[in-house]
Amino acid sequence: MASGTPADTDFALLVAVLPPPLQEAVRQLPEAELLEVVMDLGRPPEARLVSGVARLSEVPVEQEALQAVLTRVGEVGGDNRAGIERTLHRVSAIRNRQGRVVGLTLRVGRAIQGTIDMLRDLVESGRNLLLLGRPGVGKTTKLREVARVLADALGKRVMVVDTSNEIGGDGDIPHPGIGGARRMQVSRPDRQHDVMIEAVENHMPEAIVVDEIGTAAEAAAARTIAERGVQLVATAHGNTLENLVLNPTLSDLVGGVQTVTLSDDEARRRGTQKTVTERKGSPTFDIVVEMVSRDEVRVHRDTGGAVDRLLTGADVGGEKRRQQDGAVHVEAAPEVVEATPPGGRVPKGTPALGAPRPGPTRIAAHAVSRELLERVLRDLPVEAVVVGRPENAELVLTLRSRANSPRLRRAAERVGARVLAIKRNSSTEIRRALRTEFHLLEGVDPADVHAAVADAEEAIQRVLAEGIRLPLTPRPSRLRKLQHTLVVKNHLEAVSVGSEPVRHLVIYPLGTVLTEASDTAPEDVDAPEPDDDLEDDETSAVDDGPAEDEGEGLEASSPDEGAS
Length: 564
Known about the structure:
Elements: H1 6-16, H2 20-27, E1 34-40, E2 46-49, E3 52-55, H3 63-71, E4 81-83, E5 90-95, E6 101-107, H4 120-124, E7 129-133, H5 139-153, E8 158-162, E9 182-185, H6 192-203, E10 207-210, H7 216-227, E11 231-237, H8 241-245, E12 257-261, H9 264-270, E13 275-279, E14 287-293, E15 296-300, H10 303-311, E16 319-324, E17 327-331, E18 361-366, H11 370-379, E19 384-387, E20 395-399, H12 406-415, E21 418-422, H13 427-437, H14 446-466, E22 470-471, H15 477-489, E23 493-497, E24 504-508, H16 513-516
Parallel strand pairs: 7-11, 7-14, 8-9, 8-10, 10-11, 18-19, 18-20, 20-21
Antiparallel strand pairs: 1-2, 1-6, 2-3, 4-5, 5-6, 12-13, 14-15, 15-16, 16-17, 22-24, 23-24
Helix pairs in contact: 6-7, 11-13, 14-15
Organism: Corallococcus carmarthensis
GO molecular function, one term: ATP binding
Protein name: AAA family ATPase
């Protein structure tokens, strides 16, 4: 980079605030790769680069060095951040319990033109745009360039709400990186939502740019701005759209979610469980951009549709864009299921809420020994991993005495996780429950099990959709029991008819079996299958005592005949 350019001057100003012994070490580093300089009391100073970490000195940082840096930068605010006047660099402080600064992070800020080339059409559309990404992925850099393009290239009246002076730089005169956009500074971080509303009411902007929406008040202010017809471009922390939907504080940005209990008829019509999660309303942001890296993004052009697909377990979709060698490469979004409006009927064939997603099944242990669960999983031929929180799971294993915990139910319903209750916290109970859940039968060919499950699931969907009775292919007794378990889970009825070896299950719509099955004269009931787990229970300390025998739902509680 040629000497004397604004970027070169900015970098020189950052180097100048460092103690003299560190200045020369930083100048030796590749400027384009430097992300931040870290100074912690009693530790050697380090420079963090795109490609790794470089130690700047073997001499530990002393208190005097930290204070010397603080005297050369702006005043540290309530968010423990400061800046260097008319630059984009950020200086963040770490304090001890007495309030004394014991660490500093000097982060390099850059204004890079062309960084939003792959998003330019979205910015020019006039629609509200939200950028999602982890810290350090370049959200603020892109947001700064958005402000410049809106103000200079599109000639709009743009107001930047700059809480920590990251977008427009430190000092009263904004950095040239935001072009002709105006900047409103925020006196305290907890006043950002007030300044957002003030910008709309006092300065008649056509577009507002905000960095890091993170509280419920700021989310409410963003909705107010959007409803007043002002284009809003903002950032939020979160890797994917799913992170935002699961964040109760920020989910309103994408329409919010609510738990709805359906009637029996509606649940059958949709082909889902009775309790489902739906989008509450229209999203604040029309478009959501997931920042995979500095040069790659995934674009959701219809936020509402993407959230609806996410809540039904369908493929969320998204358009992949990558910037390489000055060119933008676009990978068209795959075809996805039609979006469902709040309260609308789920299209036929759409997976139900909580439907299995690609990859290992995520299982959470609630009031159950995680060690026992992991031990049992190692012995079972299933693809599953144990996760720490019910909010991240597809299946929650818990004690029967804890299964009706309101907190657990809310967490499970929010993400559509299935709750599997066991009587005791033992490896025997856990193994029995998981074998039933994953359709594992000792001594039975897995291919036969898979065929029986697929046959039953296909028939169940037809019975739910068409309201007809449907016979299944003849199966051995143990496979009929497995099929009957699936029928009961879907709130239908079934009986076994015929004699071996052509004995088979017939599935009926709910409420019709008792009248229609009386004419079928089914054979004797299949004998129940004995337990094949005879090991001693291994009870953990988290077991909260024996629970009642009623309500066990892990295995088919009756033979495969629903009625005789």
